Structures are given as structure tokens and as C-alpha cells.
Amino acid sequence: MSRPSFNPHLQQWIEQLRKEGKSTRTSAVYKSDLEQAAITSKIDCRSSRALAVFDQSTIDHLWERWTADGTKPATHLRRLSALRTFARFLCGKGIDCSRLLSARPPTVRRFARGPAHRIVQGYGTVLPPDYRDSKRSKRPTLSMDEVRLVTRPPLPTDDWTAARDAAAFSIQAGSGLTPSETVALNLRDLRSASIEVRSEAFRPRIVELNETSSAMIRRYLDALPFQLSGAGPLFVNRRARRLSERTLQLSFRRRRMECGLAGPCGPSSLRKNHAKFLVADGCFPEKLAETLGLHPNSVFRFFDGGQP
């Protein structure tokens, strides 16, 4: 027995996703999610118009069946997200899916994050010194040695993406850029010893590049297997498209694991450590605000509430 396929619009939707830049694997997952929903719903879904029958009771039924099968809530939400996205596509084709789009999934219980900790060899789990005195745990920051480990040059046996990640992390650690600002950089923003930051969340600015960051960028550009255009992105993926912030986060997680660093630090910690090191070096609030693209009143948290 063949699986229901929401003919004829399912294949049209998959083709549109690929034109929008979705990978073959992602499109296959979306298609599988719709097929799973069609099978579990016990509704004849051979036609795309069957999705117009889906309503709140159908969503509740799907959730109960998937929970009974042992599927995780994150998978439930992903499948329902695929259903809603496909429903919006069908609305553009003249099929009314308002009942499905107005339905809401059950509330997923969220658990509070545990205390920040580090795993130290020979000592097990070690809590931060101020954990007992603080009302909520603070995320551990990276030391200078840990920043050097994360931003280390790639090995000769590494892929060109390792050089890309090292250059991106080096810019964040040496110039105080956020992950979103880093992936939004274009090749034409790069200058000899500085880089122009066009930020939507913070103030646009020109930041200096230290020698390490400049060397990392040159190494990354030399290792690229294809040519970049001046108006195009500086950091790209394997399909020569702009690197996503999520990919940068996953790369940072892998780099921390390779370096043996534990804890919930993300790539944003490189920007915070840059600010911390500038403060320790005697930087004034006005200069720090200019470097980070913040208002001067927003940087006093890096000085523990007072002047340096």
C-alpha cells in the first residue's frame, strides 16, 4: 500500500522549497513529516484538499498518537510546522486551510536550565564560585587560553570550512561582533585592517581587525574552493550561499567539544569576552560602546556597575 501523498500539490511544494534554497535532505524530511501526519490522521489524504478537513481535533489526535508511539515533543512540533507551512502553500492555491492554521498544539512543558558548570578532569563537575551566593546561575565565560583554543588556526588536514569557522570566531573574539553581524558581513565590507559592520540590531560601525583576525581571513579566502563576489557574503556554506547563524552556532559547539571545553557557552561569549578584556585593559565606557555598537549607558554592566 502506497503512502498518501497530497496529490498534486505536495510535489509542487517540495520543488518550491528546493528553489528557495532548501537542501534535498530537508525537503525529504518535510515530505516524510506530511506523510506521517496523513497516515496517523486516518483521513483519506490522497488529494491535497483533504488538508482542509484538518482542525483542532485532528491536531489533538495526532499529538496523542505520536506521544503513544514514543515520539518526542520536538518531533511533534516539527511535523505540525510542516503541516502549517504546507497549508499556507495550499491557501495560495485556492484551498481553504483556515481550520488547520487556527488550531494550536498542546503546551510543551519547559524545564529550567540547570546550574552552569564545568567538567574538570580529575575533579568531576565543578560549580562556579558564585553559584551558592547568586539567585540564578551565570553562564561561564571563556578564559584567554580557552579563547585561543577556540580560535586556533585549522590543521593542515582540516576542510576549508574549518578555516572559515576559525576566521569567523577570530573576528568575534578580536572585534566584538555578534554572530548575526558576523554572518551578515559581505566581502566588500572587508578592508586592509578594518571591517565595516552594517548591523540591524546595533549601531553600524567600523571596527579594527587585529593581525590574527586578518591572517585567519586571508587563510580562509585562500582555502575557498570557489570565487566570491564583492557584493556577496564573506562567510558562505558549501553551496556558496550565506552562512546561517545556526550553522555558526553548531560549528562553535563542535569546536568546543574538540577542545574539551564544557559548559553552555555559545559564540556570543566571544563578544562578551572581548568586552571583558577591553575593560581589564583600561578601556573607557564611551570607547567600549563605540566598539560594540551600543549606547554608552548599556556597557556599564561590563564594569560591574561602576567606572573603570
Account of the 3D structure:
By secondary structure, the protein is mainly alpha-helical. It has two domains: 9-101; 129-303, Intergrase catalytic core (hpI Integrase, Chain A). Helices cover 46% and strands 5% of the residues. The protein contains twelve helices and four strands, in the order H-H-H-H-H-E-E-H-H-H-E-E-H-H-H-H. It has helices spanning 9-19, 24-41, 56-68, 73-91, 98-101, 144-150, 160-175, 179-183, 211-223, 245-259, 268-280, 285-292; strands at residues 118-120, 124-126, 194-197, 205-208. Strands 1-2 form a two-stranded antiparallel sheet. Strand 3 (194-197) and strand 4 (205-208) form a beta hairpin. The model is unreliable at 115-137 (pLDDT under 50).
Identify the strand order in the major beta sheet: 1-2
Radius of gyration: 24 Å
Poorly predicted ranges: 115-137
Order of helices and strands: HHHHHEEHHHEEHHHH
Number of H/I helices? 12
Distance between the termini: 72 Å
The helix content is 40-55%
Residues in β-strands, percent: under 5%
CATH overall fold name of the largest domain: hpI Integrase, Chain A
Biggest β-sheet description = 2 strands, antiparallel
Please, how many domains? 2
* CATH architecture field of the largest domain: Orthogonal Bundle
The top level CATH class name of the largest domain: Mainly Alpha
CATH superfamily of the largest domain: Intergrase catalytic core
Give the rounded overall mean pLDDT: 81
Number of beta strands: 4
The quaternary organization reads as single chain
Helix-strand category: mainly alpha
